[in-house]
Amino acid sequence: MRARGPGQSTLLLLDATQVLAKEKVDYAVVGALAAAVHAAVRATTDADALLSIALPRLGSLARAFKRAGFEAKLRRGDAEDPIAALLVLSDRHGNRVDLLSGLRGLDPEAFSRLITVPFQGATLRVIGREDFIAMKCFAGGPQDIADARETLRSHNVTMNVELLRRVTRRFGRAAADVLEGLLVMT
Question: Most exposed of 26, 95, 118, 131 (fewest Cβ within 10 Å)?
Fold first, then answer.
């Protein structure tokens, strides 16, 4: 494993992507790391990714991570939880990677819009800009809204506003309303 001490969750994520590739599970980096890619750079030790995997396969995936030397804990959400399951990976240094599965409302085509980003001699697959903003509008917390706002303000990539509205509406009326408020401000 690459991590040599605490505060290196991104390196743990790089190791996790190797297991995901071996198990043929697609992923998309989300959360603060995706925010940094899309313009909202902030300090964090979090590493989060969304998985494209059928829920019944998560148990075998957790076992594959354990065989590879990770600490792995599988948590299933209840009927009210927008995330069907969470696979928490950690190491002996306290680094942590959250692998989310079954995000309610996510556009099924989101994994076809991933972008690749070079990092530490490897490549990470990051959620696309419109899907990232939609997810942040759905999450709705103060930091989520700030991340969405900063990403909308970034002019380094052309944004498909029609796609953005469509993928955000999939998360429900509240997310769509948050997005429209942000669009008015930018």
Answer: 118
